[in-house]
Amino acid sequence: MHVNTNDLIPLAAIGGALLIGVGLIGALIVILTSRGTRRVSRLQAASDELRKTVESVQADLARIQAAAEQPSVASDPLARAFAPAPVLTADQRAGALELLRQGADAADVAAGIGISHAEAELLLRVQRFLGAAPSVA
User: Fold this and answer.
1) How far is the C-alpha of 92 from the C-alpha of 98, rounded, in Å?
2) 3-class state of residue 83 by DSSP
3) Phi, psi dihedral angles at 62 (to 5 degrees)
4) Cα dihedral angle (121, 124, 128, 129), rounded to 10 degrees?
């Protein structure tokens, strides 16, 4: 049997083209896979960074909540400014009213029972309003 070489040339060309096609398909698969891998890697890195940020915010929130549950008036000047003032005891109030009835002024009342001048002045004004205290300047 004799094979004509002219018949083999088209088969060789087809085989070569087939090999080139398979090679190109392989290269395309490698390229697409590496792009996908890089994309997945970037997404994973972004996810990890976001997770760390969320954990940090959660930790900050926990610290803020703990601080809110145990306020420290002594260490916070703003809290000290708005902290409720000590309440005037019944004994202090009775003593202040007695001094006012005796004719003491607000400064004497404040010094006598250990309250602020403003508190003594308020007591004096309330007593004047009620008409229970003598006119004291």
Assistant:
1) 10
2) coil
3) -65, -40
4) 60
> What gap in Å lies between CA 106 and CA 137, rounded to an integer?
8
Q: Using CA atoms, how far apart are residues 28 and 37, in angstroms rounded to an integer?
A: 14
Task: Give the pair of three-digit tokens for residue 112.
Answer: 């006598």
Q: How far apart are CA 52 and CA 59, in angstroms?
A: 11
Two tokens at 25?
């398909």
pTM of the model: 0.34
Instruction: Show the tokens assigned to 19.
Output: 């090999």
* 8 Å CB contact between 90 and 99: no
Query: How do the pLDDT tens digits run along the chain, 137 residues long?
Result: 555 555 556 666 677 777 788 888 888 888 777 776 777 788 888 888 888 888 888 888 888 877 777 656 556 677 666 666 667 788 888 888 888 888 888 899 888 888 888 888 888 888 888 876 444 44
